[in-house]
Amino acid sequence: MSAVLAPETSPVGRRGGVRALWAGNPGAVVQRGLIAARSSSWIVVLSGFFEPVFYLASLGIGLGALIGDVETSTGAAVPYAAYIAPALLAVSAMNGAVYDSTWNVFFKLNYGKLYEGMLSTSLGPLDVALGEILYALLRGLVYATGFMIIMQVLGLNLAWTALLALPAVLLIAFGFASVGMAVTSYMKTFQHMDWINFVLLPMFLFSATFYPITVYPEWVQVIVQALPLWHGVELIRGLTTGMLSVGMLWHVLYFVVMIGVGLVFTTKRLRALFLD
User: Which of 21, 101, 134, 184 would you call most buried, defined as having the most Cβ atoms within 10 angstroms of its Cβ?
Assistant: First the structure.
C-alpha cells in the first residue's frame, strides 16, 4: 500500500502544473520578513532614507539658491529644489527596493538557505519571489512617504497630481525589486554584489537627477533614456510638477515590462535551483 501511495506524496509531484510555481501565499514570506526585521539594525534602514534628504538640503536648497529655475523636459521652468526633489524621490524608492531585493536576498539564498526551506513547504517559487518583492516594496514605500512629507513641508509639490507620485513610486520600486532579485539569484560571492553599486551609481548621477538630460550629446541621451531610473525620474517629476503628457504612459509601460521580466526570471531561477 505504501508503495502505491508514495508517488502521490513525493515532492516530485510539484514539478508540473501551476501548483509547482504558485501556492497563493506570498503573504507568509512577507510576514516572515517583518518578524525578522524586528531584530534588524534600524540605523541601516534609516540611512537609506536620510541620504536623499541630505542631497535635497545641500543641493536643492543650498545650491538651488544660486541656480534659480531649471527647465524640465516639458519646457516648464521650476525652482531647482522642485526639479531635483522628485528625482531624489525616485532614487529613494530605488534604493529601498534594491537593498532588500539584492543584499538580503543574496544572504538568504547563499548563506541562510532560507529559500530551500521555504520551497520544501507548500510554497512555490512564485510565492517566494512575490513575497520578497512585496517586502522590498514596503521599504520603498516607507522611504517615499517620508520624503513626500518633507517635499510637502518645503512646498516642492507644485500640483495636486503629486498625490499620484506614491503609486508611481510603488511601480518603480516593484520594477527594481523584480529585476534586482532576478540578477541576485545568479550571484555567488560578495564580490559579485559590488556590480550592483557599479550600476546604480552611474544611474543616480546621470539620469537627469540633478540637471536636464539635454546637456548631454545626443548619443549619451539615448543611453540615459534606456536606463530605468531615468523613466522613474521623468514619471515622478511630471506628477509633482503637474506637467502631464501622454508620453508618461511609456514610462509606466517600461516598468510594467520590467516587472514581468523580473518575475519570470526569478521564478524560473528559484525553480531551477531548488526544485528541478
Answer: 101
